[in-house]
Write a structure and sequence with these properties.
elongated, 25% helix, 118 residues, 4-stranded antiparallel β-sheet, alpha+beta, 4 helices, two-stranded antiparallel sheet
Length: 118
């Protein structure tokens, strides 16, 4: 199974409150939701963001929207006006999570892409 960047088939949205960020990943169809649900664990998401996330990562499954919502604690270096980071509001976390890759069965990927490849 090829490793496919989430950006090839998912959408993401991120937001913040204080020193906490939430990042939601949305799959376009239920079979792809099952793929991301199996592979996007809190541990893997935390590892992906590395030192940017100092606290725990909690995952919430939103089955009716084919979405996963991750809450990243301690992710803004104190948050808002306390942080000296370039992105002190967490806006980059949505696009950044879409860089992660997941293994997608080729028939599923081809059917989603309409058999036309990438």
């Amino acid at each position: 199974m090829p490793g496919v960047p989430l950006r090839d088939f998912c959408q993401a949205r991120s937001g913040d409150k204080g020193n906490t960020i939430n990042v939601a990943v949305f799959a376009p169809i239920q079979p792809l939701y099952e793929v991301i649900k199996a592979q996007l664990t809190p541990e893997r998401v935390k590892a992906h963001f590395g030192d940017w996330v100092e606290g725990a990562v909690v995952r919430y499954e939103v089955e009716n929207l084919w979405a996963l919502n991750f809450v990243l604690h301690g992710a803004l270096n104190g948050g808002g006006s306390l942080s000296i980071r370039m992105d002190n509001l967490g806006k980059c976390f949505g696009p950044t999570i879409l860089r992660m890759t997941v293994a997608v069965p080729e028939p599923l990927l081809s059917s989603f892409r309409g058999g036309r490849g990438k």
